[in-house]
Amino acid sequence: MRKQTYIKTAAASLAAFGLLGAAPAFAAVDSETAYVLNTFSFLVNGALVMWMAAGFAMLESGLVRSKNTATICLKNIALYSIAGITFYLVGYNLMYLDVTGFIGSFSPFWSPDDAEALAGTFADGGYSASSDWFFQMVFVATAASIVSGALAERIKLWSFLGFVVLLTAIIYPIQGSWVWGGGWLAEMGFSDYAGSTLVHSVGGWAALSGAIILGARKGKYGTDGRVHPIPGANLPLATLGTFVLWLGWFGFNGGSVLALGSAASAIEMANVFANTNLAAAGGVVAAMILTQIMYKKVDLTMALNGAIAGLVSITAEPADPSMGMAILIGAVGGIIVVLAVPLLDKLKIDDVVGAIPAHLFAGIWGTIAVAISDAEASFVTQLIGIVAIGAFVLVLSTIFWFLLKVTIGIRVDEEEEVTGLDKAELGLEAYPEFGRGSQTL
Amino acid sequence: MRKQTYIKTAAASLAAFGLLGAAPAFAAVDSETAYVLNTFSFLVNGALVMWMAAGFAMLESGLVRSKNTATICLKNIALYSIAGITFYLVGYNLMYLDVTGFIGSFSPFWSPDDAEALAGTFADGGYSASSDWFFQMVFVATAASIVSGALAERIKLWSFLGFVVLLTAIIYPIQGSWVWGGGWLAEMGFSDYAGSTLVHSVGGWAALSGAIILGARKGKYGTDGRVHPIPGANLPLATLGTFVLWLGWFGFNGGSVLALGSAASAIEMANVFANTNLAAAGGVVAAMILTQIMYKKVDLTMALNGAIAGLVSITAEPADPSMGMAILIGAVGGIIVVLAVPLLDKLKIDDVVGAIPAHLFAGIWGTIAVAISDAEASFVTQLIGIVAIGAFVLVLSTIFWFLLKVTIGIRVDEEEEVTGLDKAELGLEAYPEFGRGSQTL
Amino acid sequence: MRKQTYIKTAAASLAAFGLLGAAPAFAAVDSETAYVLNTFSFLVNGALVMWMAAGFAMLESGLVRSKNTATICLKNIALYSIAGITFYLVGYNLMYLDVTGFIGSFSPFWSPDDAEALAGTFADGGYSASSDWFFQMVFVATAASIVSGALAERIKLWSFLGFVVLLTAIIYPIQGSWVWGGGWLAEMGFSDYAGSTLVHSVGGWAALSGAIILGARKGKYGTDGRVHPIPGANLPLATLGTFVLWLGWFGFNGGSVLALGSAASAIEMANVFANTNLAAAGGVVAAMILTQIMYKKVDLTMALNGAIAGLVSITAEPADPSMGMAILIGAVGGIIVVLAVPLLDKLKIDDVVGAIPAHLFAGIWGTIAVAISDAEASFVTQLIGIVAIGAFVLVLSTIFWFLLKVTIGIRVDEEEEVTGLDKAELGLEAYPEFGRGSQTL
């Protein structure tokens, strides 16, 4: 088939639907094929979400100083590993099995029910249990990735990983059960398609709590009240990380259709892909224009965070908005980031990579925006969900951070911070041959 | 199933087709399943093409000097964002809707006709309109990415982005309508499967026009007539970018089958994947051997551009050639790059990343090669298409570049070029801790 | 569909299978749809495996010194190109066509039998021949990638590429025919799902042979008997490479189901994805804990190799183990790496990136572990396969390395090694503006 032929097909297709009105006779997807397609969607889209772990690793590697780069790399691969294991041990059951009201089942260990495989049968509209586990698991990891960037350059490695265990085993699954597990917020009608609140704001709240308790990096906020920018060591890596996140987000939002076994679900997934892309584009362009106006220069890191904020903003409802609306929703996300970064600095909350503006603030915006684009969603219910989950995560995170602080401690000592975490905690350097970053900054 | 069992299945399969002659009875793909598969192919392959935007960003980041690296990163994420928005605003309609002769519809804004979703019906052989939009949109972005590399290190940020708007909103869609929109070149029988001419040469012509009008980078061509090579700052990133492009090209060419709803389309897609891979391999090996013979050394950047040239060469017809022919088509592309890079230098056309040889020259070769591998294609018609599109893009690009030059200007001033665009235009450094690139070069 | 609704579907699905016992009536996948799905699985999963070539390139780029970085990039793109061409020329036929006992057909050149496409027919359970070729080809390349890392920083470029030709054209396909081609080991019942032995150990044995014959890098092992660590130049790239490998491994193991045309194969693929992910996670966590205990510090490169070792370990049987068992199998892989790296140093075998522990030793472990998780596999047969393939590869590799050594030589001269291969063999620098790596180390 050649490209030039397809427009005629499209035209015929449009004619058949839009104009003639009468639906053509058609043969429906059979139940086993639907099962295969649903399952394959979870696997392909889930693999794209797993790839976001690499995106966060590169974004954060590029935005920290070279003396802390290897440590942030290690944290990212470790947190992704831990998230998978805790979600297997307790998280999945807490979030999805036998959810009644506020929490699921606390039976440890989870394994797919392979009755399907053994019996050679399957449900219409079903999917492999393992494929669902895989797709849900990569979402937990995303929430943890958000925290690592905000708290970089001064948190202890093992304390951070301890928090990851608590976040992925307890905090994330319990609040997740309230909505995606079918709990009380779902029953109220709270709507969060792929997790502006359930994933991104959760990571953002945990990061905010941690950033306040941990305190700012030495030298970030001068005694004279001035903010001293601490530039990242490797901006092409940060750019790469953002592109990886953008690509992975097609899986994040697209896979959240949770089906591919019908024309309706395929159409929905396609709308999600297009809207996700345009919201990110809107975030980039809005952030660039606003920084040009405000500062007479465009900042690369703001453009990157604009993309992420656009993606987070559309995540609560990527299927319903028109394409033009998706651009606007993303653009507001980009604007939020540009305005919120200096605001956090004013509050002396030191967020190394801008995770709190991009994931928490844009996540709140995106969750509210559902009430604009989706007639079934209620503004009040959306607010209740945002506040309830925010309060839950903030309180639990704060307790956990304090517990870690008073037991094993959460912050490296001042000398280690000056030397850099790579030498102090890992005994190596990320770029041993390039300049002498650890001495100049 | 274990791997060792499959060869028997394959043998049985071959026996059933090749030897027995008589076709086995079979059940055909039903129309809704075909619809889902066609749509999913656009989404998965389109996501791979989107990933090429990251590939260009990394390739170009690696091949510029460190003082211009953040700017090229910003240009790449910005151009991808702009391409999506302009294609939504006007491009898609200009290229595909109601094409009669030379141009489509100029009705602004485009949104998918969701009659399908609402009615729950769908055409046999159809696909979601949004999935097609997504797949076509990522191709526009590719054309713009090609330009950014060639003109790096001296073009003004906003002038470049202004050109991107014109390229993606006007130049690309209009010439695209001539072939893929079903316009006059399609009616003549011009054949360009996935865009050796429509995407890669278009980017190349626009880059050529820009490179001539913009002039060479300061110091590239000495007054003594000698060429001073300006090495890229980060060759592993350039290598990564090439691998990303290679991977993305499976989607670029494979998705251009435009269907996955039948065994015939799946077979075609598989042939496209295999040929695409082997053409790239042929380009690498040919470029390596030729540089070894000509210079007694192998140049990494030539090998990378050999891969890209091989990919561009097979893009005009990746389905029909045998595997051996695909290797040869790609190898010629690799040879073209090695010979054309010094030729451009002789003409003092400064193409920072080798985009013009790899995309324009190899694109012309690939489009001509269709007449060799595809009996239905005519050598004369292919030449008419190449010349018509080349002339159109060259004339329009030149007008646009001049308009930009006399209004907002297109080149940074000499001092800014010496300082580097990162400090001059963005006020930051891509690698603030690594060496002092901006002072040494 | 919204996420909150799906748990009910899952519950209904579980009820239908697990509890009610009686299978619901269902419509099976039709034969053409199965053909399309099988083919598409090879293409999507094969593209992920191709992506592993980029992963190895980045991992190795990050773990060598900056003076040898461009050369390792070139080797990686060249070996992937060569592997494709040799597998087309002879490899595929040697491995899969008319295998009788110890070897397949030696008829040069291979092209897909397109009878299917022409006749418009296809077998039930079949797939496109090209898609299978593509999927098998990327596995050959993986074996070659393993060798390049171990022998980096002192091997001559063209000698290495000469070995790649021999490995991919002769060594890999012949031993591959013994199992996946249906040869004598397959008949014995040797089980290696996706290639712990057939791919990873093969690369490892070839690397071991090469590392011994080539000798250690100058300065690695002091005359005083002490080991001098030679740190890699760019650890974020090594981290990126590991994430790329992890992602690609979903295709490596998942595609090795060799089918997607039934609910059973989709369920198997989903189990493979989940287990592959958890084995890697187990490898990371085990390597981190063990290095913390042994050295009071966590080493990033050990964590990365822990992930790879976990992945290699599960590759021989990713479908059968429970999720908990997958974590354990991977964890043992991680422990093996941490213990084996110093062991190799004690033997003065200089493996630059740790490829031999991660691919050979973990590959042996994974192949043995099949006998634990799969009741049908025999411990003795697994050992026979490991030893037979190991001996074959070791003997042939050693012969080939010696032939290369006495003809064109395999090691750069001492001065070139000190200068770095980039300047000596390519005449360029990977990072011309960053520090002065080649002088400091």
Tell me briefly what this model is:
Three copies of one chain form a homotrimer. The first copy, chain A, is an all-alpha fold.
Q: Could you state the oligomeric state of the chains shown?
A: homotrimer
State the largest interface. A-B, 87 and 94 residues
| Cα gyration radius of chain A (Å) | 22 Å
**CATH class assignment of chain A:** Mainly Alpha
Elements of chain A, N to C (H/E)? HHHHHHHHHHHHHHHHH
Annotation, overall tally of beta strands of chain A: 0
CATH superfamily of chain A: Ammonium transporter AmtB like domains
Strand content of chain A: under 5%
- Mean pLDDT across every amino acid position of chain A: 89
CATH topology of chain A: Ammonium transporter fold
What is the share of helical residues of chain A? 55-70%
